[in-house]
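Translate structure to sequence.
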């Protein structure tokens, strides 16, 4: 709904003032890669300008106009998927008309002998470290080399151990013990779901059902040590690093704020930088300068070039290749530490939804997650687990073994902090009915909702409580039906009025007249009740889970239901749904 909203608002206002499009507006998503939209958009821009200027009969000014537009091309608005508006300058700040016409300008492409040795490879299939014709024989348009702006100095003295609290400047960090760990899925389930319980009784941390909080996590220690070894920094890993902005650079401001003063090399790679981040093309371009082998240099140039856009997507972006994978594929590439600090993003704390109620379980905070798995691929030779989920799973692995004694595990702690703003809460009026949609681990916050509601009903028998609905789905009823016993108990004690479940990989039951695979199928079967709760009884509708598929499908289903019930077209139904959002009656807690 808010994707590239800033650009869309400006675009709409310009049209209202009489401006007319001569070329389609470009909307790029930083979450999936700006270059997917940006590069084709730039290619088409010159043709559109040529047509436009020709129609004005000013062919003689074509060259100067193109140069002016090239230098001011940042008028195309790009908004990252999460928040804010950023200029396309960050991607094409060095773009000039000459850059669009020039071929690869480095020494490699200027040496025909070297180029010939590269393109004579006999392999017929491309890979991360190997190209095939026509790309291997093409002249390349490569990005301008980003200027290095950070000066790194290693101090001989070893640093004092820093607290992870130093990583967070806008919140209080709580170091809390893990008191419980449960695997919610069977061993043969497609995904492994874990429930962790934290003891917050000795802290001032407080939360409401539906709140999200953040877990501070490190990079995988084995990957950090491997990176230190490859970069030749193993002997300096305990040295304190002093960072300064180079005087000759145009970069303004101080050194990166996400790297605390007094950080050692190892601390920076463990806690500060997202070493698993997919390298952007600017980083690839910078890596070329620190690669000695001619064939490897050429391949890195191809991957960051306009001509190699398809290879970049196939071998880097889609398989989520990281810096470590690149260093294995290009063994003569040895970037300095400052390059990593300049191009790798901050290691972000991971957000999780509370799956408990402090009223129901005082002093306890529970949350649920799937252990993310990244299988090996031709571009990534080793399988990996998610940065945070893999770390948490390894941390609590002893607790999942029944023979272990709890007193021996009291030292297992994690660092958390509260998210500042959250509206994913129960209705303030308990008489308001509400519906919840949470397949898989998306059911997590709704367990907290129902725990809270059960406790309120026990303590306030004279209150009026609205009806509650839960639409839950998973793959297999006997493998990954999360909280099955708890949900049945909520139904039996009247906390949950309606429970609708579906299992996408199980064969339909013989008695089912209309088999349902996904949560949106059950929502459609309850279309009249959904319309009644939302439109007539002014209830609330909550969605938690996958944003890309499930949340979109549920949204489309709601549009269809509202359109059918009110007898209006889909545009009007979408406006109704937008109103529900504004009234905080249609709420989503979704993730990519």
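Result:
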């Amino acid at each position: 709904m808010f994707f590239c909203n800033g650009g869309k608002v400006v675009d709409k206002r310009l049209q209202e003032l009489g401006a007319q499009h001569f070329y389609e507006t470009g909307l790029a998503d930083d979450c999936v890669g700006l270059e997917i939209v940006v590069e084709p958009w730039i290619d088409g821009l010159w043709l559109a300008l040529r047509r436009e200027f020709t129609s004005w009969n000013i062919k003689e000014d074509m060259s100067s106009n193109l140069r002016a537009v090239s230098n001011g091309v940042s008028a195309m608005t790009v908004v990252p998927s999460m928040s804010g508006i950023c200029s396309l300058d960050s991607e094409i700040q060095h773009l000039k008309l000459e850059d669009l016409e020039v071929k690869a300008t480095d020494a490699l492409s200027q040496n025909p002998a070297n180029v010939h040795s590269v393109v004579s490879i006999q392999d017929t299939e491309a890979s991360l470290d190997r190209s095939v014709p026509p790309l291997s024989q093409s002249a390349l348009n490569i990005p301008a080399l980003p200027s290095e702006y950070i000066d790194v100095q290693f101090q001989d003295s070893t640093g004092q151990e820093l607290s992870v609290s130093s990583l967070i400047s806008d919140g209080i960090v709580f170091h809390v013990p893990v008191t419980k760990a449960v695997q919610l899925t069977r061993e043969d389930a497609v995904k492994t779901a874990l429930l962790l319980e934290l003891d917050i009784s000795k802290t001032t941390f407080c939360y409401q059902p539906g709140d999200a909080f953040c877990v501070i996590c490190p990079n995988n220690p084995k990957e950090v040590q491997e990176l230190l070894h490859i970069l030749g920094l193993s002997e300096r890993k305990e040295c304190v690093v002093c960072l300064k902005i180079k005087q000759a650079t145009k970069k303004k401001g101080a050194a990166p704020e996400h790297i605390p003063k007094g950080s050692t090399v190892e601390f920076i790679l463990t806690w500060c930088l997202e070493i698993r981040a997919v390298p952007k093309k600017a980083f690839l371009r910078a890596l070329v300068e620190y690669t000695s082998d001619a064939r490897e240099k050429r391949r890195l140039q191809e991957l960051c070039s306009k001509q190699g856009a398809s290879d970049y997507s196939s071998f880097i972006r889609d398989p989520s290749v990281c810096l470590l994978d690149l260093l294995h594929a290009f063994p003569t590439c040895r970037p300095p530490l400052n390059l990593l600090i300049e191009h790798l993003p901050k290691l972000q704390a991971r957000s999780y939804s509370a799956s408990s109620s402090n009223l129901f379980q005082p002093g306890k905070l529970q949350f649920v997650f799937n252990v993310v798995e990244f299988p090996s691929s031709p571009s990534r030779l080793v399988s990996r687990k998610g940065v945070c989920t893999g770390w948490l799973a390894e941390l609590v692995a002893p607790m999942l073994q029944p023979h272990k004694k709890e007193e021996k595990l009291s030292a297992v702690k994690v660092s958390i902090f509260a998210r500042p703003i959250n509206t994913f809460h129960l209705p303030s009026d308990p008489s308001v009915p509400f519906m919840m949609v949470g397949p898989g681990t998306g059911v997590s916050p709704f367990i907290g909702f129902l725990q809270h509601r059960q406790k309120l009903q026990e303590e306030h028998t004279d209150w009026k409580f609205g009806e509650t609905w839960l639409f839950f789905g998973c793959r297999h009823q006997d493998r990954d039906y999360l909280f099955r016993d708890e949900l049945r108990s909520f139904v039996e004690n009247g906390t949950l009025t309606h429970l609708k479940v579906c299992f996408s990989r199980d064969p339909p039951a013989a008695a089912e007249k209309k088999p349902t695979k996904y949560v949106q199928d059950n929502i459609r079967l309850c279309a009249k009740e959904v319309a009644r709760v939302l439109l007539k009884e002014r209830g609330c509708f909550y969605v938690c889970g996958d944003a890309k598929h499930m949340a979109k499908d549920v949204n489309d289903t709601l549009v269809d239901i509202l359109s059918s019930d009110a007898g209006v077209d889909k545009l009007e139904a979408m406006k109704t749904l937008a109103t529900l959002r504004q009234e905080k009656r249609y709420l989503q807690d979704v993730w990519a």
